[in-house]
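Sequence only, no structure available. Ideas?
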Amino acid sequence: MESGLKKAKVAQLIDQLRTLNNQDYLDVLCQTSVERPYAVIRKAFNYHQEHRKKGRGPGAGSVEECTPLTRPLRVSRPAWEVDLIYRGDLVPANGILYIDVEKVSLLSSHLNVAGTVAVVDSRRELVLWAIIRHENVCQFFPKLTGLSKDKIAMGIIPNQARCMLRKVLKGNTVVGAAVEQDLKSLDYDFLENRTKVVDLQDFFKNEKGPFKLLDLATHFFPNKQNFQCAKHSAISDARMTMKIAKKMFFLMKDGVMRYSEGIIRTKKPKFLDVGDKCTCSVTKKKYKEKPAEHRDWRDFEDYIHDTDPYDY
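Reply:
I predicted one. Tokens follow.
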């Protein structure tokens, strides 16, 4: 008897749900699903997917039919532990993506090149992540980038990184802070690849110059101002770039061409500990001959006397 009443009640609820429009149904689904265990939600999802494949509507059969489809959660490795993540299924067509790069410095030339790169979409989903291997690095800036010799050694080569970046950015718009410098560090030609660039620092600046990403995060998201930390990856910066870019696009819709109101510029520290020092060989400072009144012993080392100065 009790089982019959329960089935009748469930059938009544199903009939009521079927009368709802899509928006009302979505509201009911979202507000009730958060109270249910993940295993239950996953079972419903599997049921829906299975019956779509069979060409039947989601109302056919019973939920118990999908029980064998449930699988234990797969534990994924964090991005920091892998050299490459590429989600081709998330690459948009004529869409907007957000990028950040952490750089290392090369030996002798001190050229800053990309050590890691992260690209995310408008939903904060990671589209591309790569650790890029370089030879002859003189400085890794570990307290800023989290990078080290061993970490860089596990990366992909620069040509592979450019190939993946081309797959992701070609024909799309990429947003970043000092984005052209980031792309230059990757040796990526955005003009040749029809990639439009939008720089946050062209919009958020005042008479003293552009604001850093940290300044913007502190202004717009005070509770997220610690998003940058030691051993952080470019992923957190790329996701923060996306959030700030949405603020920028909102201001642009209101006709704002440049914005700096209320943004506080952080002071540069007198000494910034980056975690390592340049390992290039030290070059001797060239000696310049001093004026006569300030001459020292090096001004006389090549002087030849006609006579012995000590022969009195």
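Confidence is low (pLDDT under 50) at residues 55-70.
Hope that gets you unstuck.
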